[in-house]
Amino acid sequence: MSAILHIALRELGSFLNSWWGWVILALMLLFDGLAFNVYAVGFQPKYSSDVLESFMEASTVTVMIGGVLLAMPTIARERANGTLALLQTAPVTEAQVIAGKYLGALSFLVIIKALTLYMPLLVQINGKVSWSQIGAGYLGLFGLGAAVVAIGVFASTISRNQILAAVLGGSIVGVLILAWLLSRISEPPLKSIFAYMALFDRHFQPFMRGRINTESLVYYASVSFGFLLLATRALKARRWV
Asked: What residues does each domain of the chain span?
């Protein structure tokens, strides 16, 4: 456990000590601010709950894009810098490396989204929303972010460079987003299968409306675990290449 924590803190520190991490932080906060003022609040009177719902919906964009970009360098950067071999010869397992890298990237994503908490609180000044709706929305964003970062770590593990990792991770996320479109044009039983695969739509909409959906939490946890397991297997395979 100490090895995982050490790797996670090292990964988190790499974001805080590099221009890349601060650029992602600034761009995510900028987009969230614009989305809150233009898309969520808008220029027409709205119910407070509708404003919060729209903000949570818009926040999924930054979570998915930011999650991929933050996970992009986790393993691919080590390979590019020639430090992956040193990491693999250290007294840590592949699972610990993947878990530490994952927790470091996810922690930075959580920090960024935590900095947006003041936006829903602004709704409280001129309106009224329940804390349960705010909490459910951020819980959904955390579940979505956890899944996307896991996908990005897997892409980083099997990619030769960071650009390829971003493209591959973004493509996988894109396929899982577009699954809801396939569910609209498919017939049973494929309709329900595609609907369940989609990262957004069925799984996130309850959260942005203030409802905690246990099935969706299980889905996000399953996606996270599955891709982290694949990343661990891929890293083990590369040890012998």
From this structure: 2-169+221-239
